[in-house]
Design a protein that fits this description.
Number of helices: 11
Largest sheet: 5 strands, parallel
CATH architecture of the largest domain: 3-Layer(aba) Sandwich
Order of helices and strands: EHEHEEHEHEHEHEHHEHEEHEH
Helix content: 25-40%
């Protein structure tokens, strides 16, 4: 009797080292904003309206939508009898004013670090200073900061060239603030240009770029050198995630891409790749990072090296309306 053929052993999988950045993913402001929507749904029931995406992440938005959140672009799309949440990026002062005029129940999920920028801008305005805002035109955070003061009180600059073209009313009476999710290196260059041209410009008492943005960029600088590929988990609308891709390339990665999830990974990126860096923007949940790790584990013999020493302990309080007993 002929013996059955021996099973063919599976082909060995190519080795792949994944450098996992730490810290990565959710920051305290994002975590607080998501909790505000979740607690509002628990307390008031569905639907709860949210003006703009609560944070810039597709997975988070779709999950909250499935729970009963309704995302709208403007306040006039919200009914009078349902709660509304303002996004983590902050809103112009006209928005809560309009909500009050309609007696809407509203919850402000603005990140406290963004609120600090708003307060600094108001303080400078009250002191009679003209304000320069370093940021990206059209970003919700920038729109919110510009909307804290009357038109013309704040001038937006995006580049060193914008600083060179700046024509303030009183060059000796300037102050600057920044968007919280910028590239630390790019912002340093713009600030240096501002100080060179306007030596008396008043700086923030503390750095405006948030601790989480800074920490995640520093973590990418540690993992990127020598990587064939760096993947940043985050949505295209996320400014801090886009900056991580830029930082990875500047820091020595051969290529770097932004992906919403493992489904976005192009097999062409993985040709001759033996070392991958992996991180996540401040609005991307860890479950998406796990999905990318699982994706690689199906095709490669993976070794994961978590790199990073910064431990984040920042937390922000929820609005009293959501924590007090009924």
């Amino acid at each position: 009797m002929t013996a059955p053929p021996s099973p063919v052993p599976p082909a060995p999988r190519a080795p792949l080292t994944i450098r996992l950045a730490s810290p990565r993913g959710f920051c305290a402001g994002v975590d607080r904003a998501i909790q505000i929507v979740e607690r509002a749904l628990e307390k008031f029931g569905a639907p709860v309206y949210v003006r703009h995406e609560i944070v810039h992440n597709r997975y988070v938005v779709e999950r909250l939508r499935a729970m009963g959140a309704v995302f709208v672009t403007e306040l006039d799309q919200c009914p009078d009898d349902r709660p509304v949440v303002f996004s983590a990026h902050g809103v112009p002062k006209a928005v809560p004013a309009a909500a009050r005029s309609r007696d809407l129940l509203f919850l402000d999920a603005t990140c406290p670090l963004v609120s600090k920028v708003h307060l600094d801008a108001e303080r400078h305005h009250d002191a009679g200073r003209e304000i320069v805002l370093i940021g990206h035109a059209g970003h919700p955070e920038v729109i919110g900061t510009l909307g804290q003061l009357p038109d013309g009180a704040i001038t937006l600059v995006e580049t060193v060239d914008d600083v060179a073209a700046l024509q303030p009313r009183d060059p000796g009476n300037l102050a600057f603030v920044t968007q919280t999710t910028l590239s630390v290196d790019d912002t340093t260059e713009i600030v240096a240009a501002l100080k060179a041209r306007f030596p008396q410009v008043v700086s923030p008492h503390r750095e405006d770029i948030c601790y989480a943005t800074t920490n995640r960029q520093e973590a990418v600088k540690r993992i990127a050198p020598g990587c064939d590929l760096v993947l940043v988990v985050g949505s295209k609308r996320s400014s801090n995630s886009q900056r991580l891709v830029e930082v990875a390339v500047r820091s020595g990665a051969r290529q770097a891409y932004l992906v919403d999830s493992a489904e976005d990974i192009d097999p062409a990126w993985l040709v001759d790749v033996r070392r991958v860096g992996l991180t996540a923007g401040a609005s991307a949940p860890e479950v998406l990072v796990d999905g990318v790790l699982d994706h690689f584990a199906q095709a490669f013999d993976v070794t994961v090296e978590e790199q990073g020493a910064v431990r984040e302990t920042v937390t922000f309080k929820l609005p009293r309306l959501l924590t007090e007993a009924d």
